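Suppose you are handed a protein chain with no further information: no name, no annotation, nothing but its sequence. What can you learn? This example shows the usual starting point.
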Amino acid sequence: MLGRDHEYIDILERAHDAYLERGEPLHAFRCAFWCGIILLTRGEVGPGSAWVGRAQRLCEGQPDDSIERGYLLMPLVFRHEAAGEFEEAAAVAGKAAEMAGRFGEADGFALSSYAQGSMLIKAGRVPEGLA
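A reasonable first move is to predict its three-dimensional structure. Written in structure tokens, the prediction is:
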């Protein structure tokens, strides 16, 4: 929020490595996910995609109905948005928001519900998106 993304990413990378060393792959997953999302939203597609791919690999073996799988829906939201498929993007973001709400995951809910509203607005469903 302070606009110091490079510092934030450096901290996340170090935390990711430390979590892996301690044998905590799901904590490392979160660091990798946020590195990826931040880089993708800044237009750094290559490194952002690499971090999201790392997060996906760290999530292997997790149940389909887990908060980690909910987080991994967000890159799909952005792909739909880039293709101009705003209704599809809103639907995927809505699924991620539902999962985050069910698991009590505030950060995931904030990210996905914001994305859902934005995609609904882009789809021309302004009152619904603002709600």
